From TrEMBL:
Record protein name field: NB-ARC domain-containing protein
Top-level taxon in the UniProt lineage: Bacteria
Pfam families reported in the protein's UniProt record: NB-ARC
Chain ranges of the NB-ARC domain: 75-185
Originating organism: Kitasatospora kazusensis
Length: 295
């Protein structure tokens, strides 16, 4: 592979690779001691009562076993449908099963964030200066392009396809890329990528999710009440997760799913219906997600 400045990039085979060393106009990554598998970046915990739905199956099938069938999968959908959770489940499953040597999780909400994450990764796998945000990303991509290690790069929450220009991981039989984004962009359908549309839960998925989440604190909730609550919340995974957490928090006070639904119908501010703490490493309340949709 040619580097950003035209150098030919080579990687020595071995249990570990770092560098870089420039000799005769070439970049060579020399071997040092490293512990594998290696995870870089914070992967969200798999959601409580995670639903293995059609989009999760599509992601697993697209990735294949051993050599990936599709090297880059783009999970596209509106806020709150669970794209990050699907990516986290996929990444954790591969790591736990021993199918990965390197997992890099990138909070990719801006080009700067991507460059910083790549530079951090380059510092760990290729002894790059961790403050070199110009060369670091290109050296990390160069390392990915020739290593025999099995790797997965997750670009979570890409908000503008321009933010990943010249920052796409290379196509490699030993590598995978998963992107989560609200955007539907022609770029996602080009150059060996495939888009997986992520939507709301089905009725059955909503009921299964609520039943599992509430099984300890509200085990006797009538099926019809849970179905009506799910319908009221539009089968939106984030809304169901936060409603379930609110009900669990308030279970000792006698609050039920019917009471919660009545409060929704009273048009109470959503801030009053938010749980004490957001579940599943979520960072946005339902009110914030709906406000973003309304822009």
């Amino acid at each position: 592979m040619a580097g950003e400045h035209g150098q030919v990039v080579n990687v020595l085979s071995g249990s570990t690779v770092v560098g870089p060393v420039i000799q005769g106009g070439q970049i060579t990554f020399t071997t040092v001691q490293q512990s594998w598998p290696l995870q870089i970046g914070v992967v969200p915990a798999v959601a409580d009562a995670f639903q293995y739905r059609d989009s999760a199956l599509a992601l697993s099938v697209a990735a294949g076993t051993g050599t990936p069938v599709v090297l880059c999968q783009v999970l596209a959908g509106m806020g709150g449908v669970g794209k990050t959770q699907l990516a986290a489940h996929h990444a954790n499953s591969l790591l736990v099963s021993g199918a990965l040597d390197l997992l890099v999780w990138v909070n990719a909400s801006s080009a700067q964030a991507v460059r910083q994450a790549y530079t951090q990764a380059a510092a760990q796998v290729a002894s790059v200066d961790p403050s070199d945000f110009e060369e670091g990303p290109q050296l990390f991509l160069a390392w990915l392009s020739t290593t025999s290690k099995r790797w997965l790069v997750v670009l979570d929450d890409v908000q503008d396809s321009a933010d990943v220009n010249r920052l796409w991981p290379p196509h490699r039989a030993c590598g995978q890329v998963v992107v989560t984004t609200r955007r539907r962009d022609p770029l996602w359908l080009s150059d060996g990528r495939t888009q997986i549309d992520v939507g709301h839960f089905t009725v059955a998925e909503s009921l299964a999710y609520l039943r599992r989440r509430l099984s300890r604190r509200l085990p006797t909730e009538p099926e019809e009440d849970l179905a009506e609550l799910a319908e009221e919340l539009g089968h939106l995974p984030l809304a169901l997760a936060q409603a379930a957490s609110y009900l669990i928090d308030a279970a000792d006070s006698g609050l039920t799913s019917r009471h919660y639904r009545e409060m929704l119908r009273e048009r109470r501010p959503l801030s009053e219906l938010a749980p004490t703490s957001l579940p599943d490493d979520q960072t946005s309340t339902l009110a914030a997600v709906l406000a973003l949709r309304g822009r």
